């Protein structure tokens, strides 16, 4: 009888401990989730989109009118960078405390906002969040094209050949834009098709400021790039 009573006391103790632990975990989970309700998260991302993208568009418009080294361009560029610093802090806090948000909560537009802010951040920041982006892609929560864009941007900033051809750079020596050199340009359209991207010719023609895709020219640019490394 004493043995049975002792076992009962022990079972009650462990049961109570487990319930308490589960309650603590649930409380912590709720606290974490309450930091970003769906409505608040969507509103925050909408605001970030406007304050991140509109200054860029105005800056680029001023660059086309007055030149990309003009005072007008530089002043607007400063405004953009100040906005970006604020937006980056918000996005990094979100990712560090919550992980990559569910696409069901923020939609494709929310994903694009997060990716754009990361895209405008420094190399070390972008490197840090590539694994999180890969995980989101694997879980069908992020479009592969956004990961491809991030990886191409990282490659260009490291002075390496890009894979998918999405990065366009301004070349001061020619005062014009062109595609950053691409690895194996002959097969770039095949790689793009595998992740749902349009062919290079179509992609470049659809830009706000269209460019022409010249495969032979890009092959030569890639060869020259590799020779100069």
UniProtKB/TrEMBL annotation:
Q: Name one Pfam family in it.
A: DUF6624
Source superkingdom: Bacteria
The record's listing under PROSITE patterns reads: PROKAR_LIPOPROTEIN
- Protein name as annotated: Uncharacterized protein
**Species this chain originates from:** Sediminitomix flava
């Amino acid at each position: 009888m004493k043995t049975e009573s002792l076992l009962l006391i022990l079972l009650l103790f462990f049961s109570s401990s487990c319930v308490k632990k589960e309650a603590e975990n649930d409380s912590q989970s709720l606290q974490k989730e309450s930091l970003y309700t769906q409505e608040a998260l969507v509103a925050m991302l909408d605001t970030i989109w406007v304050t991140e993208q509109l200054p860029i568009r105005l800056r680029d418009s001023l660059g086309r009118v007055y030149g990309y080294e003009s005072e007008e361009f530089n002043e607007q560029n400063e405004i953009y960078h100040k906005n970006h610093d604020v937006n980056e802090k918000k996005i990094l806090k979100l990712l560090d405390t919550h992980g990559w948000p569910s696409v069901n909560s923020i939609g494709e537009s929310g994903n694009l906002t997060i990716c754009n802010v990361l895209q405008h951040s420094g190399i070390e920041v972008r490197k840090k969040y590539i694994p999180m982006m890969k995980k989101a892609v694997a879980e069908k929560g992020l479009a592969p094209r956004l990961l491809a864009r991030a990886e191409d941007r990282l490659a260009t900033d490291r002075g390496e050949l890009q894979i998918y051809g999405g990065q366009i750079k301004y070349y001061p020596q020619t005062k014009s834009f062109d595609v950053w050199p691409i690895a194996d340009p002959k097969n770039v359209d095949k790689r793009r098709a595998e992740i749902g991207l349009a062919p290079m010719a179509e992609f470049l023609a659809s830009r706000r400021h269209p460019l022409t895709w010249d495969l032979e020219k890009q092959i030569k640019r890639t060869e020259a790039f590799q020779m100069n490394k």
